[in-house]
Automatic annotation (TrEMBL):
ATP binds at K20, F68, R96, T102, R113, N123. It catalyses: a ribonucleoside 5'-diphosphate + ATP = a ribonucleoside 5'-triphosphate + ADP; a 2'-deoxyribonucleoside 5'-diphosphate + ATP = a 2'-deoxyribonucleoside 5'-triphosphate + ADP. Signal peptide: none annotated. Coiled coil: none annotated. One of its GO terms (biological process) is CTP biosynthetic process. It is an enzyme of class 2 (transferase). The chain holds residues 75 to 234 of 234 of the full protein. This is Nucleoside diphosphate kinase. Keywords: ATP-binding, Kinase, Nucleotide-binding, Transferase. GO terms for molecular function: ATP binding; nucleoside diphosphate kinase activity. Its cofactor is Mg(2+). Its EC number is 2.7.4.6. Belongs to the NDK family. The active site is at H126. It comes from Carpinus fangiana.
C-alpha cells in the first residue's frame, strides 16, 4: 500500500456554487462563502450577477419538464445571485454535503440549507452534482478569463 500513489490519483475537481437571490437578500453571502473558505477549498471565481432568463433556463434545462420550472426560473432571476467557482480534491461531493438536502426541512443541522432555510423553493444555494456539471456550469456562468488560478498561502497546511 503506497499512500502517496493514492494521493496522486485523487482528482482535483471544480464545482459551481451559487448563492441564490434569497440568500443575497437575506444577507447570507458572507456566511456561505465563509463555510467553503473555512473547510479549505480554493475560491477561483466570484461575482455578483443579475441572471437573464435564458441563462437560468439553460442552467436548469434538465428540469424543464417539471411543474415547478417556471417558478424556479422566476426565483433565480428575481434578484442578483453570487456566482462562485471552487476547486479542490473531492470538492463536488463535499460541497453537496456542506449544502445539504434539496428540501431544507430534510437537510441535516450543520448544513447550509439545514441551518439557514425552510423551503425547497427558497433553499438559498446551488451546487453542481458532478465534476462534469461543475465544468459545464462554470463555463456557462463565467466568461473566459474570469476565474483566476492562484496558490493559497495555506496550501501546505491543508494537504500533506
Ligand atoms: P438541488 O441539486 O439540490 O439544488 O436540487 P434539484 O437539482 O433537484 O433542483 C434544482 C432546484 O430546483 C432546487 O434547488 C430548488 O430550488 C428547485 N426545486 C426542486 N424541486 C422543487 C419543488 O418541488 N418545488 C419548487 N418550488 N422548487 C423546486
Ligand atoms: Mg441539482
Amino acid at each position: 500500500f503506497l499512500p502517496h500513489l493514492v494521493a496522486s490519483m485523487e482528482q482535483v475537481e471544480e464545482t459551481y456554487i451559487m448563492v441564490k437571490p434569497d440568500g443575497v437578500q437575506r444577507g447570507l453571502v458572507g456566511e456561505i462563502i465563509s463555510r467553503f473558505e473555512k473547510k479549505g477549498f480554493k475560491l477561483t471565481g466570484l461575482k455578483l450577477f443579475q441572471c437573464p432568463k435564458e441563462l437560468a433556463e439553460e442552467h436548469y434545462k434538465d428540469l424543464k419538464a417539471k411543474s415547478f420550472f417556471p417558478k424556479l426560473i422566476e426565483y433565480i432571476t428575481s434578484g442578483p445571485v453570487v456566482c462562485m467557482a471552487w476547486e479542490g480534491v473531492g470538492v463536488v461531493l463535499s460541497a453537496r454535503k456542506l449544502i445539504g438536502s434539496t428540501d431544507p426541512l430534510q437537510a441535516d443541522p450543520g448544513t447550509i440549507r439545514g441551518d439557514l432555510a425552510v423551503q425547497t423553493g427558497r433553499n438559498v444555494i446551488h451546487g453542481s452534482d458532478s465534476p462534469e456539471n461543475g465544468k459545464r456550469e462554470i463555463a456557462l456562468w463565467f466568461k473566459e478569463g474570469e476565474p483566476c488560478q492562484w496558490t493559497p498561502a495555506q496550501a501546505p497546511w491543508l494537504r500533506e
